[in-house]
Design a protein that fits this description.
Number of helices: 12
Oligomer: single chain
Largest sheet: 7 strands, antiparallel
Strand order of the largest sheet: 1-2-3-10-5-8-11
Distance between the termini: 37 Å
Helix content: 40-55%
Strand content: 15-25%
């Protein structure tokens, strides 16, 4: 469907501890999971083990977190950091019900983001302005309220987290001509295949780069993330078809690559300021459509 396919219709699984989990996105490098805990206040905690690297953004509620002899109290805006092999317990002494958006990262992605041991063993990070804004953008992407790719914002959040916790910024190296060429080739490839399912891993491997480095290089050269460019390619084709052909809006949405009609209508309206149906009328001579839009902003 898109570079970050949000699968909110997937069934939720529930663990014995009352933790409901819905997988929103999955690729070789990264997966995103929506967690909703229904544990009651004072419920007895149990030991769990982190299976890999993870960053969970707490969007609602509060809970305690114990790991490696330390205890943390997490509230909305906090990050829970998972390190592979670490045992942990989650406690609920104050409120019941918490929700998190969690990103699980493959080891090679962590290496590219910045495998700094002190960062990934932080356990928890309090609500920091430079991280909460990214956490909320990630949630907007998960909810379909943003055209930012869920996989892309997950990588950006991971990179920013490492920078903030370690106090080390990687800086911005000069782009090589080879990198510029790869970014342009990738943009041409995405545009040619925009009607097909494309994810960040696939676009990156097509030009021989890791997803994290590809995201940074592409964004700097093209001025948009790969996901944003993909959505814009689809919108451009949709606008052309809406103006030129007598096909249903549903058929056009699926033909250009949107896997969901409501997502297409919402995305098109956000971009054009009018619905696809109104855009079609305007393209066929109904000048009042855009005149009204202009009057609203005059």
């Amino acid at each position: 469907m898109t570079l970050a396919t949000v699968c909110s219709d997937l069934p939720m699984t529930v663990s014995p501890g009352g933790m409901g989990a819905t997988k929103l996105f999955s690729s070789r490098s990264l997966s995103a999971v929506d967690y909703r805990c229904s544990a009651r206040v004072g419920e007895r905690p149990f030991v769990e083990v982190h299976q890999g690297y993870s960053i969970a953004y707490v969007r609602k509620g509060s809970f305690g977190y114990r790991t490696r002899g330390e205890s943390f109290e997490l509230v909305a805006g906090s990050l829970l950091i998972g390190h592979p092999g670490d045992e942990y317990e989650c406690t609920h002494e104050h409120v019941c019900g918490d929700e998190c958006l969690s990103f699980h990262l493959a080891p090679d992605l962590v290496d590219n983001v910045g495998d700094r041991a002190e960062a990934w063993r932080a356990g928890s990070v309090p609500p920091l302005p430079e991280l909460v804004v990214l956490g909320e953008l990630a949630q907007a992407a998960a909810d379909g309220r943003s055209n930012v790719g869920l996989d892309e914002i997950g990588m950006v959040l991971a990179g920013r987290f490492v920078e903030v916790v370690s106090g080390k910024s990687p800086g911005q190296a000069a782009l090589r001509e080879q990198d510029k060429r790869r970014a342009v080739e990738a943009a041409m490839w995405i545009d040619a295949h925009a009607h097909e399912p494309i994810d960040l891993d696939g676009a990156a491997s097509n030009v021989g780069l890791s997803p994290f480095h590809f995201l940074r290089i592409f964004s700097r050269v093209v001025g948009a993330t790969p996901h944003q460019y993909l959505v814009r390619s689809r919108l451009r084709r949709a606008a052309r078809l809406l103006a030129d052909v007598e096909r249903s809006i549903t058929d056009i949405a699926f033909d250009v690559g949107f896997g969901d009609l409501s997502n297409f209508v919402r995305t098109f309206h956000r971009a054009a300021g009018v619905s696809p149906r109104a855009y079609r009328k305007a393209a066929r001579g109904d000048r009042k459509i855009f005149q009204e839009r202009i009057a609203q902003h005059s």
